[in-house]
Amino acid sequence: MKTSVDVTVVGAGPVGLLLACELALQGVRTTVLERLTAQADTIKAQMISGLTRQMLGMRGLGPAIDAASEEEADRLAWNPRRSTGHFAGLFKLDGLPLVMLSQQALERILEARALDLGVEIRRGVEVTDLGLGSEYVVGCDGGRSTVRRLAGFDFPGTGPTLTGYQAVVDLEGDLPHGWHRTPRGVHASGPLQGRVMLIEYDGPPATRDVTREALEAALRRVSGRDVRITHVHTATTWTDNTRQATTYRRDNVLLAGDAAHVHSPFGGQGLNLGLQDALNLGWKLATGDSALIDTYTAERHPVADRVLRNTLAQVALTRPDPRSRELHSLMSDLLDLPEVKARISAMVQGTDIRYETGCDHPLAGTFLPGLDLADGKGATTAVDGREAVVRPDGYIARVGR
Fold this sequence. Notes:
alpha+beta, six-stranded mixed β-sheet
């Protein structure tokens, strides 16, 4: 390993923190720069996929994740193990169950691990140029990435067409739990007490600031219910702006997570996609091998492209016009077919990812769960009765004959 490699990670969200942990495991000097002075309390992702749980578990983070998940599930009196996710609001997927874990709880776990590994985390630092004095810079600074803009990455895609709201509120009135489509949009509530989600298909949000009055008016319009919001604890807007960097690397600058790809949150795929970017990139970047680092884009770009395409499809399926409602009904029928259910479930959960490794064994390039790779190194193990080489990210590199 090239021990002279040092990396600056911009952004101390889950993706940036996990990447810092991955680099530190490989002995890389790593500094994380974060614009905010403290962790944001804005409502964000509340779960991770079963695959992501397996991948973090191989790094020894399983006990901390499970403890935090059980604490949150107990507080909400909800059993997340019954949920395997949804496609366009159709809760018919199967496979690995979701794991209840708020983004804030995950950030705390990853920050503690990063500090234990010797990562320097500097908060209240706003990056204005890329002269950071390190060999590599990785932008993990979100959809409005400063690193992406400064480095000149192309970021093509489709513009926003809807306004989505996520909020935790005190509510008066009868609002049914679950996911509901109406002639004016979509509203959903639960499992978090007071959490509501709304979608109006009338263009992008006019402002990122959400007032109580605007949120209440939107909820009444979409639900058709006589409800009143008495207090907003936290609220944010989102949309279906869907874009992807054409490459994840320009010279010594790389992108991961939302800095590399943005899309609507349908199917809850975004956080998992970014965390898996970090697991793919960390061990490669640590080597300083330019050709190996280039395989990060080659492997992860198609994965994100598929997520972007399926979230665009989910937006189309949930629109309230009659044609889209019939498409949604047809999709519901199709998901009752075992072959369709299996394919869509694997796509949303990412369990069917297979990287090209040059080995023709059917398991080569797939993730192998259950290994202890807490040291960040790969392993040699038995697969199908044959010796298999497993990469540091848990994917099988090759299987012997």
